[in-house]
Specification:
With 487 residues, the chain is an alpha/beta fold. The strands form 3 sheets. Strands 1, 2, 3, 4, 5, 6, 7, 8, 12 and 13 form a 10-stranded mixed β-sheet that branches. Helix 1 crosses helix 20 and helix 10 packs across helix 14. It has 2 domains: 269 residues, 3-Layer(aba) Sandwich (Rossmann fold); 191 residues, Rossmann fold (3-Layer(aba) Sandwich), CATH 3.40.50. The radius of gyration is 23 Å and the shape is globular. The structure holds adenosine-5'-diphosphate and alpha-D-glucopyranose (GLC).
Length: 487
Amino acid sequence: MNIAFVASEVVPFAKTGGLADVSGSLPIELTKLGHNVKVFMPKYYSVDEKRFKLKHESWIGIIPVRVENKAHNVNIFKGLLDDSKTEIYFIDYPPFFHRHLLYTNDLDEDERFILFSKAVIELLQRLSWEANIIHLNDWQSALVPLLIKDNYSWDKYFDKIASVFTIHNIAYQGNFPKETYKKAEIAPKYFEAPGEIEHQGRVNFMKAGISFADIITTVSEKYAEELLTPEFSFGMDTILKYRKDDFYGILNGIDETVWSPEVDTYITQKYSSKTIDDKEKNKIELLKMFSMPYNINTPVIGIVSRLATQKGFDLFLNSIDYLLSLDVQWVILGSGEYEYEKQLKEIAVNNPEKFSISLGYSNELSHLITAGADMFLMPSHFEPCGLTQMYSLKYGTVPIVRNTGGLADTVFDWDAQIYDNKKDGTGFSFNDYNGYALTNAIERAVSYFHNKEIWKQIQQNGMKTSFAWQVSAKKYVSIYSKALAKK
Ligand code: ADP
Ligand code: GLC
């Protein structure tokens, strides 16, 4: 199959979260399965031409892309994803994409991603390549199926191409004023009743993707179920229920060539499930780095996260006094909302031996925390998939998670499994979003930490779990076939 994979962030070129990890791995895995994949993303300021050995595709020429009756001159660059054979095309338009952040609150945020989406379509028209599938990801490319149906309906090239739209996080919808449909030059009928792109009087890119893609997927089976309920859908449950027969959950994989304690070059001491005692050297190094005292019997709990309400920081901070009374040390890496940064910093200043925070983004440190901590906390309010709990499992760093979305699909509570006469638990989880449930899960984990035999079993159960992309990539291929069958 020929697959056009469209995403607004891709590792190693630009990343704000898990979407970039997925977009940097899944296309490579699809290529390994024998498919021809081309990836498309914006050329942000961080996409360094020299470092990534990109080539200006001058033969394509300048592509004039219309947004609000005005043509914007777009250039195309090309590179390779990793050292694989997967090609990646960059949409270059500096006035829109050379900004301080990938996503902004600027007034032309809608125009930035209308331009991106239209540029991908225009580029496909010029590549002399018969795409079978266009795979869109999140709101930033969600307009593509509608633009093809409306603005580009004249072009037979798209008649046989099926579209798949993956929801990585429904909380971010690309929600803009009514005028946005005019900027995209979309026919008014799509905004007016029944309003496939209208939500609460505004243009909603996410809703457009759900309405017009041939198949919709999301990143775990549990989140797919949750999205059909008002509690989790941020207003999209009605349209998703309408598309229920075309809606699937496929769990993300992880790049086990990067996220494995056996090969990780960022950590102090490599180890495997057989040499798990070596993991301790990473804990010692981690605590040294944060100038915290080391005690073999005091568990270290790590967090690596965007500091956003989604991730459960309100819950965590509400329980902090009690958590600080436990014999536990905390190492946190994160960046995000100012209020959370401020409060976490204050706690660290007041509890230097117990609580450390590194504000900002550091790939290297995220690896060391994953290897050096004994446990990893994700008390998410909701979690479409979550990658960091899967990384932790592979490193024998026992996850403590709220039982939601992808966390529920990947972490199996030790006590609940024992209750079912099974010894295959991999972590600790809690259901209710309250301080009691959170602290109870942490205390259960801490108490098992002191039983070395059981603890090792929990660690090794996690390390044995496979999250290889190959399994998920095959599921995407079967979804692509289903989408093609609809054409
Ligand atoms: P989300 O996409 O919702 O942020 P995921 O768990 O899917 O959550 O993916 C988060 C990705 O971002 C992981 O690769 C994680 O290691 C990384 N990450 C998050 N915060 C930081 C940070 N401050 N420094 C380095 N990596 C981070
Ligand atoms: C989103 C979700 C996260 C998921 C990631 C990759 O950012 O918040 O749970 O793992 O996308 O699909």
